[in-house]
Structures are given as structure tokens and as C-alpha cells.
Amino acid sequence: MAFTSILRRSASSLAPLASRLVRGQRNYHAAVFTAINHSSLAARKPSLSPLAPNSRYYSKADDSLLRVIDAEIQCAEETDEQEIEEVPSGFPFKVEDVPGFQTVKLTRTYQDEEIEVEVHMPDLVTGEGEDDDVDDDGNEQANQSSIPLVVTVSKGNGAPVLEFSCNAYPDEIAIESLLVKNPDTAEDQIAYEGPDFNDLDENLQKSFHKYLEIRGIKPSTTNFLHEYMINKDSREYKNWLKKLKQFVQV
């Protein structure tokens, strides 16, 4: 009996120790398992560079193109130091110049007529190797810079519209064609454009030149437009280059 009692006391005293040992082994294994999992996840997790979201791969061709564009922008800025041409006092037209567009629009009212002029970019001629160029009338206009104009004269109320296609040279305006347009004519219908302007009677040609001159289409107007459009061409070219650069960099 005494021996049995001793065994019971020994068993009861060892039980808490065994329980602590078992719990310790379980906690140890759990800690090891957790550490292994964390280590595995850390190994699989990619390292992120702070610049990765905004990084941009440039090829050698892109880098070369950007250098050429930068050089061209610098060259354009160095060679073009002219300010925007101010419209002179007494200029007969209102100038509508929208950046980024190819043309400039002039408008005015003359008596009961609405006059609109569409001015295009200049056709520049350097004069190199073109000394022998002459037009059909023997005039040396082919080797002179010019600006194309489209002049529209309308009287409203559904009346026909006169449309002149011209080229403005230094101190001279050449009418290339004259069209009488009906506002009610469908766009897919081609109106008769009349004969070549140079084939008209000479007096009739002179009369139409005078007709335009009275309405403000004269050398004093077009000479200013010539300089204005040259400057606009330079500005638009620089802006075009900068837009190209922005596109390549995106």
C-alpha cells in the first residue's frame, strides 16, 4: 500500500512536467513551422524598386531620335528670334490666328458684303538654281516666294458667292482662278469654274484686280501677311517639334 501510494504521488508530480514538455515541443514545432513559412514567402515575394512604376525603357533608336529632336529645337530657337508680328494700324481685316492650325483667317465687312480671306503657309523660294524659272507670261514669279490666298466675297440672303484663288508675291497679287458658287449647290456637285483667269479679256482681268484692291486685297496687305505667315510657320514648326518630343518620351 505504501509503495502504491508513493507511485501515485510520483505520477501526479510528474504529470505537470510531462504536460509542459509536450506543450513546449508543440510550441517549438509551431514556431519552426511559422518561421519556415515566413522565410518561404519572403523568398517568393519580388523585391520592388522605388522607380519601377515610372520606369520607361528607351531603345537606342529612341535616344538617338530624342537627341536629334532636341538639337533641332535648339537650332530653331536660335535662328528664330523674331517676335509675333503686330497688326499695323489701319489694317483693313480682323486677323484670326489659332495656334496649331495651318491657316490664318481674315474677315471684314465692306458695305453690304462679307469678305473672308483664308491665308495659307508661304511657299518659300531660296532662289538657288532657279534663275531661269519664269511663268507662262514671261514674268519671273516662279522664283519668288508667295502665299496662297482664297478670297470669298458674299452678300448673304442666298446670293451667289465669289471665290478667288490667288497667289500673293512681293508687291504683286496674281489671280489664278475665279469661281461663282451657289450656296444651295450640294457639296457633291462640282460647279463650273469658268475659264483660266489668264484667258479672260485683259480689261476684265484688270477690273477684277481693282475689285479686290478696293476690298483690301492689295500689296500693302499681302506684304504684311507674307512676313506674318513666315513667323507663324516658324512658331508652328517649333511647337510641332516639341509635341514630337513629348510623344517619344511618353
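(the above was protein one; protein two follows)
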Amino acid sequence: MDLSIVEGFSKSLAMTVLSEIGDKTFFAAAILAMRHPRRIVLLGCLAALTVMTALSVLVGWAVPNLISRKWTHHIATLLFLGFGFWSLWEGFTEEGESEELAEVEAKLDSDITANKGNGKPNSKEGADDTKKQERRLLVHIFSPIFLKAFSITFFGEWGDKSQLATIGLASDENPLGVVLGGIIGQALCTIAAVVGGKSLASRISEKMVALSGGVLFIVFGLQSFLSPIEGSS
């Protein structure tokens, strides 16, 4: 196997696991799995994370073809160092261990309350039943729970530092290794969240995760800074 694929895979896997454990989407998956069928929640979250990882790697792969390899290398280095110090700052200034968990739970509770408040009885039950039968196949494939898990996870990850770090990593490492490592890392974290539920999520030290992730980002940044630029002339 190509060494560049192994290097990209290992970096992406380690970065993804440390970035996603204790993240908002991790807590959201844990809470959703307590309130809905775990299999559907898991499928929705994994689908969203797979699409997000693939898109991020695609962007990272395309950037070196549009910008000089030298510039993308330097940008990736700055991203890793910047996210590293950012994570360390978050870890040292973190006050409550379950603050993010409580925030996500409150948001999901408010969504449920809003949905219940918008529900109104409909006198045309026969017409509604007919429409439901016509859309039965679509509902089986994309149930409301699946779509909820997908949308919460996808938009929760959009613009997150883990997505930007994946783009930077894909621009500087083998894209195939990065996408494989990212998807496997996302799958491991999501399965842990869905199976462990809130009991596992509440035991995770956000402070330690942030500090560990910060150190890893800085190590990647230093390694990128010291490594030669491939393909530079």
C-alpha cells in the first residue's frame, strides 16, 4: 500500500476522533438515540458525516489544482497551528464539563416543543390517509427521524473546525487516505454516541478532549512546517 495513503489515513483518523468526541454533533447523536430508534439515528448521522467528509476532501483535493502547491501547504500548516492553539484555549478556559451537552439537549427540547405546538387537528383525515399511503415508500426510505438526524448532523458540521481541518489535510495529504480515515473516524464516534447514549456523553471530559485535540493539531502543524513541499519547483 502507498505510504502516502497510510499517512493520510492515520492523520485523518486521529484528527477526526479527537475532534468529534465531545462535539455538538456527538452529543446530538447521543440524545437523539435515546428518543428515537437507534438504527435510524445512526444511519442518518453516518450519511450526513460521510457526505460532509467526502465534500471536504473533494474541496481539499481541488484546491492544489487551483492554487500553487506551495501556498496550499502553508495554508494547511497555518490551519493546523491555528486550530491547535484554538483548541488549547478552549480547553484551558472550559468551565463546565457538560455545558455543550446541556446546550444541545436544550436545543432539541425546544425543537420538539415547537413541533408539538404547530400540530393542528385536520378534519380531512381521509385525504391525509390517502396521501400518507402514496408516500409510504418515501417515508420508509427517508423517515422524519432519518432526515432530522441527517440535517442536524450535516448543518452542525458545516463550517466547523473539523471540516476546515479535513479540507486542509486533504490539500496536503493523499485524498484517498484522508477520506477513508475521516469516514471510519466519524463512524467510530457516531456508533459510540448512539450506543452509549447520554450516559456516555455525560462522562466525557470536554476539557481533556479539547486539550488532546489541540496538541494533535499543533503536532500536525509542526510536521507540516518541517516537511518538504511535494511537487514544488
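Reviewer note on protein two: The longest helix spans residues 38-66.
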